[in-house]
From TrEMBL:
EC numbers on record: 2.7.2.3
Alphabetized HAMAP family for the sequence: Phosphoglyc_kinase
Family: Belongs to the phosphoglycerate kinase family.
Binding-site list for ATP: 201, 323, 353-356
Protein's name in the database: Phosphoglycerate kinase
Record-linked InterPro entries: Phosphoglycerate_kinase, Phosphoglycerate_kinase_CS, Phosphoglycerate_kinase_N, Phosphoglycerate_kinase_sf
Locations listed in the record: Cytoplasm
Assembly with partners or alone: Monomer.
Length: 397
């Protein structure tokens, strides 16, 4: 018996179904640059619509402080409509009159997308009044946003306590695939953690080092660790106030017998743009006006060599600013090496995260890894063995 109620258990016909999805998709200007998160929620949307429910999509975008055009979900409507092949009605708010009016005008099977839930501070605060305001426009709640399930927010957690709650098809599929691939991982296990969300992911590395044999660190995360070792990282993305936490993680890793791999060389540039004129330097020789934008060739070789030895790889966060060539070099080289090992049958490789998925697509390995999750932070927390609030709230009580 499933631990969750699923769409199989829901009577959807004629119901207003609040569906939490993750539309925090990578953008190139005002266009969605990778539609994986959109593609993965289509089965849930179609099933609810085809069974006669009114689909009311709830999602966040970015980390806005209040309402702003840059973080409006309106910009996702064309890509969602195209992928779904059905009209999507955009509603300019996620609570109150505008939603009630749009629902009154909607027919069974229609799809509505509500504006960014994070335009209201009550979402991230899981404020009971905001939960009630969201719930006022729904009869049922479906959570299909595994990739946001590590957040105990009103739209990811609070709603499950006030409306009949169900796991969506992607939520089910993610949990099943991750369990099948990683519940009993074959050792040695290597984790790669890179990317830009340093402050929110740094803390969880303290537990991750107890679960893995090697932790290779890239991206802005690596710069913070390099700074904690006294390396001058110039103008690189780096959380200088977290160098103490980075040091503590290194100590925890040592105690747990987990080896930490940091870049020894880097691609640096003065400007954050494609082909800006770059140089390869040892990490100790970054100029005061330069930024580390990718790992260098020696660092890539080191990680690729480890892939010969490890049997399981979990990966969140690119090694560099992969959207801007040539700073995709390390991410593409390591992704291709991982795919070769998966093909040879000597590696289970699972990668996840909004931008990581885009990076794996860019490297052309999306179908060659063992599993690609839409989740980054949530996937790492799941890997740590942490209970995810959005998942826990769905459990049958
Ligand atoms: N050295 C770097 N400097 C600046 N940005 C970087 C660097 N390395 C990686 N990034 C950026 O990190 C972003 C992805 O990080 P993150 O959001 O943490 O990953 P995910 O969405 O997969 O969880 C990418 O947009 C990439 O450009
Ligand atoms: O993109 C997301 O996570 P990810 O970058 O870890 O893949 C999720 O939408 C969560 O976003 P948040 O980290 O702003 O809460």
């Amino acid at each position: 018996m499933s631990a969750f109620r699923t769409l199989d258990d829901a009577d959807l016909a004629g119901k207003r179904v609040l569906v939490r999805v993750d539309l925090n998709v990578p953008m190139d200007g005002d266009k969605v640059s990778d539609t994986t998160r959109i593609d993965r929620i289509l089965p849930t949307i179609r099933e609810i619509a085809d069974k006669g429910g009114k689909v009311v999509l709830l999602a966040h975008f970015g980390r806005p402080k209040g309402r702003d055009d840059k973080n409006s979900l309106r910009q996702v409507v064309p890509a969602l409509t195209l992928a779904l092949g059905r009209p999507v009605t955009f509603v300019d708010d996620c609570i109150g009159e505008p939603v009630a009016k749009a629902l009154a005008a909607a027919r069974n099977g229609d799809v509505l997308l509500l504006e960014n839930t994070r335009f209201h501070a009550g979402d991230e605060k899981n404020d009971p009044d905001f939960v009630r305001a969201l719930a006022a426009n729904g009869d049922l709640y479906v959570n299909d946003a595994f990739s946001a399930a590590h957040r105990a927010h009103a739209s990811t957690e609070g709603l499950a306590h006030v409306l009949p709650a169900y796991a969506g098809r992607t939520m089910q599929a993610e949990l099943e695939a991750l369990s099948a691939g990683l519940d009993n991982p074959t050792r040695p296990v290597m984790a790669i953690v890179g990317g830009a969300k340093v402050s929110t992911k740094l803390d969880l590395l303290g537990n991750l080092v107890k679960k893995v044999d090697v932790l290779a660190i890239g991206g802005g995360m690596a710069n913070t660790f390099l700074a904690s070792r006294g390396v001058d990282v110039g103008k690189s993305l780096c959380e200088h106030d977290l160098v103490g936490t980075a040091r503590e993680i290194e100590e925890k890793a040592k105690a747990a017998g987990c080896e930490i791999l940091l870049p020894v060389d880097a691609l640096v540039a003065r400007e954050f743009k494609a082909h800006p004129g770059h140089r390869v330097v040892p990490v100790g020789e970054v100029g005061a006006d330069e930024m580390i934008l990718d790992a260098g060739p020696l660092s890539i070789a080191e990680v690729v060599l480890r892939l010969e030895k490890v049997r399981t790889l979990v990966w969140n966060g690119p090694f560099g600013a992969f959207e801007l060539p040539p700073f995709d070099t390390a991410t593409v080289a390591v992704a291709k090496a991982a795919a070769r090992h998966v093909k040879a049958g000597d590696l289970v490789a699972v990668a996840g995260g909004g931008d990581t998925v885009a990076a794996m697509n860019h490297a052309g390995v999306i179908d060659d890894l063992s599993y690609v999750s839409t989740a980054g932070g949530a996937f790492l927390e799941w890997m740590e063995g942490k209970a995810l609030p959005g998942v826990e709230a769905l459990r049958k009580r």
